[in-house]
Amino acid sequence: MKKRFDLSAIPPGINVRSTIKKCLDFMNAHPDEPTPYLVMDKDRIARKARLIGRNIRRAEVYYAVKANTHPEILAMLHGMGLGFEIASGGELRGLLELGVPPEKIISSNPMKTEKFIAEAASAGVTHFSFDSRDEIDKLARLHPSCGVYIRLTVPNEGSEWPLSRKFGVETEEALALLIYAREKGIRPLGITFHVGSQCTNPYNWDMALSKAARLWEMARDAGLELSILNLGGGYPIRYTKDVAEIETIERRVDEQLARLFPPDIRIFIEPGRGMVGDAGIFVTSVHGTACRIDENWMYVDVGVFNGLMEGVGGIRYTWLSESSGPVTGQMKEWTLSGPSCDSFDVIDKGVRLPHPEVGDRMLVLGCGAYTTCYASEFNGFSIPKTILL
Question: How far is CA 318 from the centre of its chain?
Fold first, then answer.
């Protein structure tokens, strides 16, 4: 009997059926394509590129390259006029090879290597974030003509991938560092923050903007003329549950900006997951099942080492299974594991799916960001191929 995917298993609000149809059409046309592979929907990425920033006045969009570094995606976004946010020489070289001009590139990694700073200076990149005296000392020595924006610590509650511990400073220290940058001959340009990746709490933007506005006023009183507010990333996508719409988030942010900041400031946005996350679907195959101490295990050929590392950090994906019959009465709770022989390679637990046969294929939704770019060839398993449709 021919097997099919039961699309009724898609949770309400997960609106990626057109992307799923593209993926299924490709699978039907290429039944012998070896799994695992990542399908990326270019039309969905283009729609997001046209949407993000549209509801924030004066917004300049800089795609966070780390989310998905595929050259064809970068070329497409460049052709649509977007800028790019980078952290390394490798990302910089990839963009320069595509013809991206340096004025369309910024770096919001607050702690950069000296090698990268020198390379960015040579290429003509001029905008950088920072949150320490060491960073200013490096920039003053290696790139004295650059401008900087300070990374402010803001709440990350409700974000499924919090980011506030590694980077950022409080307002008083932020002001002192902006003044220190001026003393060292570096141009203090503005403020940046990050509400946390996959932010499902819209109030985080409210609190972050209020805190940034206080720092903006403190900087003005200290004689600093700031011009840039970088909102970072954080736009969520739908994995297993509904989230706030991008338009809703942006209209709320725009209202706060109009109330708290001067009308002529530049607004930067750095979407990564929000730009490409729901445009990607992993196609994977089941290579075994087992019951261990009353726990059902399912083993697939993509795991945390070769594509689904964010499962370790708490991201939960929607899985669709291939079946030859009705799934009623066949559902079980599974612990999903990748193909390696490492016990760390566990993607998720408590996922309700029908009992598969070896060789059945699975679709993993929402895999366009932080998957193949995280992947390694640990244990000899290859990084999955990316197919753009």
Answer: 17
Distance between CA atoms of residues 102 and 252, nearest Å: 31
What's residue 330's pLDDT? 74
- Of the residues 23, 146, 291, 341, only one is catalytic, namely 341
Instruction: Write down the pLDDT at residue 202.
Output: 85
197-199 and 319-323 strand pairing? unpaired
pLDDT tens digits for range 296-342: 999 999 999 999 999 998 899 999 998 755 554 478 999 999 999 99
**Dihedrals φ, ψ of 365, to 5°?**
-85, 155
Give the integer Cα–Cα distance in Å for 337 and 346. Answer: 4
Which ranges constitute the DSSP H helices of 272-351? 273-276
List, as one string, the DSSP characters of 211-232.
HHHHHHHHHHHTT----EEE--
Say if residue 265's pLDDT is above 60: yes
Predicted TM-score (pTM) of this structure = 0.95
Taking 60 as the threshold, does the pLDDT of residue 1 lie above it? no
What are the DSSP E strand ranges found in the chain?
A: 4-5, 37-40, 59-64, 83-86, 105-107, 127-130, 147-151, 159-161, 187-192, 197-199, 228-230, 266-269, 280-292, 295-300, 319-323, 331-337, 346-354, 361-365, 385-388
The CA-to-CA distance between both ends of the chain, in Å, stands at: 28
291 is a catalytic site residue: no
**Tokens 């940034």 -> residue:** 212
204 within 8 A of 243, measured Cβ to Cβ: no
Question: How many residues comprise the chain?
Answer: 389
Question: Residue 34: in which H helix or E strand, if any?
Answer: none
